[in-house]
Amino acid sequence: MAIRERLSGNEAISYAIKQVNPDVMPAFPITPSTEIPQYVANYIANGEMDTEFIPVESEHSSMSATIGAQAAGARSLTATSSCGLALMWEELYVAASNRLPLALCLVNRALSGPININCDHSDSMGARDTGFIQIYAENNQEVYDNFVQAYRIAEHKDVMLPIMICQDGFITSHAVENIELLEDDKVKNFVGEYNPENYLLNADQPMAMGPYAVSNYYMETKMAQNTAMNNAKQVILDIGKEFGEMSGREYGFFEEYRLEDADYAMVMIGSAAGATKDAIDKLREQGMKVGLLKLRVFRPFPDEEIANALKNCKVVAIMDRSECFRGKGGPLGAEIKAALYDYAKDVKAFNLVYGLGGRDFTVEEAERIYNDLAAYDKDGTAFEEYRYVGLRG
Amino acid sequence: MKNTVEIRWHGRGGQGAKSAALMLADAAFMTGKYVQGFPEYGPERMGAPITAYNRISDTQIRVHSNIYNPDYVVVVDETLLESVDVTKGLNPDGAIVINTTKSVEEVKPFLKEYTGGVYTIDARRISEEALGKYFPNSPMLAAIVAISKVMTKEEFFREMESSYRHKFAKKPEVIDGNLKALHMAYEEVE
Questions:
Q1: Domain extents for chain B?
Q2: Residue A393 covered by a domain
């Protein structure tokens, strides 16, 4: 039987970490992820888990130490946010290219400047090309469930890539809400032991880790990483299904909310999906056919699957919670429009940016967007190709 | 139609408004409800105005935005009345409760002709009498439960006693004082 609890997102992922009980966790504090190493350190101090906790002097060091531990053969993880992720930058590529299936608990927060502690996705979106798998959550339940699945995906022999488990800073990380937890033994059985094929501390099989790659070899390494990322798609689906059989909560690449017959749809990532679902229910009562595609997995990018889910929509609003300064839209908009070009050319898509630096996203905002999409479709009311919503009046 | 009660807390950093919102979420959770308790973070520092929120519902809560049209407002520090629009968006069928020594008539000029329920409570006197120290959050918590009736009196005191016994397991001497503060506040506004 599931355990009825109430936890914040940071408490929820820390509880999952305790249940998984990985081998090593180096960490350096940064708002709003600080509570994660704090809670884990408490669990260790109380004897509830035996992970080796390493307090380090920076995020560059926390990722370096996580890489070192994972390379040695230990199941490892760290946690960070925002500028902490930025300081890990070069190490993120090292983790991925060395095919180390470590976990990074990211609590999404805006990057400076101006300095801001609140949520947007500019930190993880900036790291989208590092070679990490990226999985996002709408609420505390999903971030808990995603972490329980993380090592199964990352450590799969066809994948062997690091994984980033993302949640929205403060909105999810610091909001206490109801949650259903799994029993310890269920989680332990699901995750299983880590038995790496190759690792540095294996004296019987000496190996080099992270050597220089001349031009004759470098490109094949990248090709292999890309193959692994493609392989991750099937593994993510398989693990999501197996998790569903255990917990009653199955996961795929995305959640479709009343999307099947929708004329107007939004695509978004993270906590704002909840307000959008409430707006959808209200507008459906008024007879509007509206729906949502809430993207869970951004790396690997399920382009064909997204396009297929959207192909019967008339107009789509792609919601970006980060800016990439190409002048025409954000990263999610660019990738989904590319997918539509390949698989569903007839769908008209606009790109909107919202929620930067913690700007609130409300049910009313979602209703306005759907109404604007309908007005464009029915009356030809102008809709900017790239629009900021929720700006100061 | 509306089965979610929304509450907005106004306090100053360090007074425990966020903790009170989390305690309310905890108690409501224990009575079987779906709950949210969350702070709105600005540049946090002792003494700066802060806002915290509660949603309490019989069904799952999906919205994660701040609360703009609360049913109830709790003002933990009366000096905020001069600088914060505390009744902004407040449901006229709801109520506001303010920690002050002033009477309802004396605070009304600060409430922009709000037509709903207005309650005042002297949380400092209650806290100092019950606890010997000024912690306004316990009396304010009891006051908002008494006014909003998000749970019964019996449920509230049962859950708070259990919560204090857990929270103050190493400081049992403060449990009775906190419970006394809750009872005094509850009965004063009831």
A1: 4-189
A2: no
For the stretch A98-127, pLDDT in tens is: 999 999 999 999 999 999 999 999 999 999
A391: exposed, middle or buried (Cβ count in 10 Å: 0-12, 13-18, 19+): exposed
The CATH number assigned to the domain holding A375 equals 3.40.50.920
Residues 6+ apart with CB under 8 A from A145: A137, A243, A247, A249, A251
When pLDDT is cut at 50, 70 and 90, the band that residue A193 belongs to is: very high
Q: Could you tell me if A356 and A323 are in contact, meaning their C-beta atoms sit under 8 angstroms apart? A: yes
Whether residue B38 and residue A175 make contact (CB cut-off 8 A), yes or no, is: yes
- Element (DSSP H or E) covering residue A177: strand A176-181
Residues of A in contact with B38 (CB under 8 A): 170-171, 174-176
pLDDT tens readout for residues B121-178: 999 999 999 999 999 999 999 999 999 999 999 999 999 999 999 888 888 888 999 9
CA distance B64 to chain A (A): 7
Cα angle vertex B16, ends A175, A34, to 5°? 45
**Which top CATH class is B4-189?**
alpha beta
Give the C-alpha separation, A297 to B100, whole Å.
51
Provide the residue range defining the domain that includes A41. Answer: 3-247
Verify that A165 and A235 share a domain, yes or no: yes
Write the CATH number for A16.
3.40.50.970
Is residue A189 included in any domain, yes or no? yes
Domain assignment of residue A354, yes or no: yes
Asked if A177 and B22 come within 8 Å (Cβ–Cβ), the reply is no
Q: Quick check: pTM over 0.95?
A: yes
Q: What is the DSSP letter of A271?
A: T
